[in-house]
Amino acid sequence: MDFTTFITKIASRRKSGILRSYAKKFAEHKNAISLANGMPNATTFPFEEISVTYKGGTKIKLTGEELSSSLQYAPSQGYLPLLKKMREFQEHWYKPIYNEWDIVLTCGSMEGCSKVLEMILENGDPMMAQVPTYDGILGALIPLEPEFIGIEQDEDGIIPANIAKVCEERRCSDKPMPKILYVNPTGGNPTGTVLTDSRRRQIYELAETYNFLILEDDPYSFVHFLEKAPTTFLELDTKGRVIRLDSISKVISAGLRLGVITAHKEIIKKLTAHMETTSIHPSSLSQMLLYKLLNTWSVDKLQKHFNDVQRFYRSRRDVMLSLTEKHLTGLAEWNVPKGGMFVWMKVNKVKDVMELADKECISQGIFVIPGHAFNYDRSKPEQHIRLSYSYATPEEIDKALSILAKLIREEIKKLD
Ligand SMILES: Cc1ncc(COP(=O)(O)O)c(C=O)c1O
Asked: What's the CA-to-centroid distance between 374 and ligand 1, angstroms?
């Protein structure tokens, strides 16, 4: 099957609703008289005005037309002025090479991933994912019952040779080929890895050779600690093989619940149809607040803000690393996170950390996440724990890691 037919065939079950298509037409023809409009009348809503002050002092006031748009249904693809702005941003940051791309707004990257996976995977379909995997994705996959093929990572992210091996073996034994690869390339959750540019290029070539899609879940793309931003899969994409998820959660607000999917326009059409019959669209007020922010802050100001966020997490990471060295040298092993918010730590000698993380740590007043959370099969024994440096203060990290070290020593003693 050629690639364009493949893209067009995906999720052919999803159809656009007639009512929602009128909502979109209506939003585009503001002066038309509509007897089709079944939306609630926004003048009945109990809001007079919404005022917001952004950091730096910019104030906005939502009244009249903007207030009713913020409180009203919107087109499922997204609030039109924000869609325009976000398309400009995607052009600015990623400069997609092929023309047939488009975007749809989602309630964050998790919702986007879940909809993409639901759209593409039928029961039993083979799919590849970087392991360990963000547990939200695992949760979205489990009811879809795909054939889950884990692709391991090292300190440079997922290993292309492992993808090639899986695909080649399947091709030679006439097994169905994986439809999609899930990858969380920058500041991977839970590993903190950043996939190197050369690996990204190799993986894109493998996707061409073995005809799979790439689901690029990249909510930490602006939270990396490298000199130069990594090249995204979207930038490498020449024909619409990449489905890219951006999110404002890590750099603007997690609670506004907004993300953007950028993909081939046929895929975006199907995803928009899916939005119509599920969340309908992300919060109009959130979309308005983001639109206003992007409209008042220049790209340079936004970039400066992202740089500040990077500096914040980098200094937190450095504190965590120096205290980890102080307390856990010899007891555990870890990589230096190149992005994101987590240290992925292998506890030496302890074959399964569940008891340690779930009982001992909690009883001593500290919380860490046992690595089981990031395995498709959660019952498998795990030696890793995930530590976050996002919220804890240096004093708290110091105290928590000294307790953790004591508990690991006790666990090891039990084994002797
Ligand atoms: C890898 C990964 N994907 C998706 C999400 C969810 O992001 P959002 O808030 O945009 O839904 C997270 C949040 O922790 C994450 O770590």
From this structure: 13
Q: Does the N-terminal peptide bond of residue 132 adopt cis geometry, omega within 30 degrees of 0? A: yes
In terms of residue numbers, what domain contains 351? 302-415
* 165-199 pLDDT tens trace: 999 999 999 999 999 999 999 999 999 999 999 99
Q: Please report, rounded to a whole number, the percentage of residues in the chain having pLDDT higher than 90.
A: 88
Output the CA 331–ligand 1 centroid distance in Å. 30
pTM score over 0.85: yes
Label the pairing between strands 147-154 and 157-158.
Answer: antiparallel
167 phi, psi to nearest 5 deg? -70, -40
Q: How many domains does the chain contain in total?
A: 2
Q: Cα-flanking dihedrals φ and ψ of residue 149, to 5°?
A: -115, 110
Pocket test for ligand 1, best of 106, 109, 261 (most atoms within 8 A of CB): 109
Is residue 130 domain-shared with residue 270, that is, in the same domain?
yes
Domain-terminating residue out of 269, 296, 323: 296
Ligand 1 mean position, distance from CA 133 (Å): 11
Q: Is the CB of 286 under 6 A from ligand 1?
A: no
